[in-house]
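Quick one, C-alpha cells below. Sequence please?
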C-alpha cells in the first residue's frame, strides 16, 4: 500500500534536499529562508519589469532623439505650430521629461519680436510650457537671438503615456515673418531634439 503522507521526522536528517524536489514543483519564496534571488540567478534572457528596478530619483531612464530638417515660411500674430519636436512614451508613472532642442529660426532685419513657445500634446497644445524671445531691434542694430531651448517637464502621467512636443511661434510685426528653416539650397543639414525621461 503506497504512503499518502510522510512526516518530516521520517526523513533521516530532517531536511529535504534540492535533489528530492520535483522539477515542476512550485516553491513559495517564504520557504527559501535567506536565499534571496541575486543577479547571478537571473537568466540573461529574462524580461524584468521596470517596476522591479531600484533606481535613484533623478536617474535617466530613457532617451529619445528626434531630427528636424523641414523648411517653411510663416507669419502670424497669434501662435501657430512651427515645428514638431518628436514623441516620448513614459515608462514609469510620474516621471519627468527633460527636453533640449536646437532648431533655429531665421528672421528679417526689421523691428520685430518673436515669441517661441514649447507646448505638449497633453492639453492638445493649448498652453505654453515655456516661452523664449527672439528680438530684432533693427533701428539701433540690436539683436537678442533665440539660441534653442531646454525645459524640465513634470507631466504627472501614468506609465505608457505618449507625449508629443511642438514649438509654437508668433511675431509682433505683420510686415515680416520667419523661416524655419531657410537653408539657401543647402543639404545634408539636420537639427535635433533630445527628450530624456527622468526617474521621479
Amino acid at each position: 500500500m503506497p504512503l499518502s503522507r510522510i512526516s518530516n521526522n521520517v526523513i533521516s536528517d530532517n531536511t529535504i534536499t534540492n535533489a528530492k524536489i520535483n522539477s515542476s514543483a512550485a516553491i513559495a519564496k517564504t520557504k527559501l529562508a535567506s536565499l534571496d534571488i541575486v543577479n547571478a540567478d537571473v537568466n540573461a534572457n529574462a524580461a524584468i519589469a521596470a517596476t522591479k528596478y531600484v533606481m535613484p530619483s533623478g536617474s535617466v531612464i530613457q532617451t529619445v532623439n528626434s531630427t528636424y530638417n523641414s523648411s517653411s515660411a510663416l507669419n502670424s500674430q497669434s501662435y501657430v505650430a512651427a515645428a514638431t519636436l518628436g514623441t516620448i512614451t513614459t515608462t514609469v508613472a510620474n516621471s519627468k521629461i527633460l527636453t533640449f532642442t536646437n532648431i533655429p529660426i531665421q528672421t528679417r532685419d526689421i523691428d520685430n519680436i518673436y515669441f517661441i513657445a514649447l507646448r505638449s500634446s497633453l492639453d492638445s497644445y493649448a498652453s505654453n510650457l515655456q516661452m523664449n524671445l527672439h528680438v530684432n531691434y533693427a533701428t539701433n542694430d540690436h539683436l537678442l537671438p533665440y539660441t534653442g531651448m531646454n525645459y524640465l517637464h513634470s507631466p504627472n502621467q501614468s506609465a505608457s503615456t505618449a507625449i508629443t512636443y511642438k514649438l509654437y511661434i508668433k511675431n509682433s510685426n505683420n510686415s515680416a515673418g520667419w523661416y524655419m528653416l531657410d537653408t539657401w539650397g543647402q543639404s545634408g543639414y539636420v537639427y535635433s531634439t533630445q527628450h530624456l525621461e527622468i526617474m521621479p
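The chain has a mean pLDDT of 88. Residues 47 and 160 are 17 Å apart (CA to CA).
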